[in-house]
Amino acid sequence: MKRFLCFSAFVLSFFSVHAQSQDIREEVQRLVQRVDSLEHELSYLNLTYELNTLNSDITIFADEVYTRFVAIKLDISNRNFNSELGDSYQQYYESCQNKKQSISELIEVKSLFFNLKVVTSSYSEDEVSMLKTRYNVINNAYDVLEHSMNLLRFIVDEYNRFL
Question: Most buried residue, 21, 95, 106, 116, by CB count within 10 Å?
Fold first, then answer.
């Protein structure tokens, strides 16, 4: 009888340990799935942030260039002509050209990064669609920047013509 009780206790403890290890494996699996889900979400949010930041930077710069265009236009309207001011406007335009070139290169790098992330990550179709929409907004912002730069070039030339 003692042997039977000892054997029963051994079998019960064996099954108990086995059941606990199964529970632990299931819990580990749930945690791994949760971590994968969080990594996916973080990757998506990071890429969204990168695209939004680039768009904001381009938009702010385009607005700054357009504001300078308006200021120079007001100087022309008020007949405020000064050769030093004309030189500073020319230098400002050239610095804006350099910054625009840097932004263009940054867009190329972000485009490569964007394409790699979309290809290597397992984003859903909706997520990819949203990311592509955000990326296309960057192209529109860059077009606005180019338009503002063209206006600035025109008005700087116009200002220098009056000198």
Answer: 106
Please state, as a whole number, how many other Cβ atoms lie within 10 Å of the Cβ of residue 11.
10
| Residues 6 or more apart in contact with residue 73 via CB below 8 angstroms | 155
Q: b/e for 85-121, b at 16 or more Cβ within 10 A? A: ebeebeeebeebeeebeebeeebeebeeebeebeeee
Burial (CB < 10 A; 0-12, 13-18, 19+), residue 2, is exposed
pLDDT of 83 above 90: yes
Give the predicted TM-score (pTM) of the model.
0.83
pLDDT of amino acid 140: 96
Tokens of 81: 């002509």
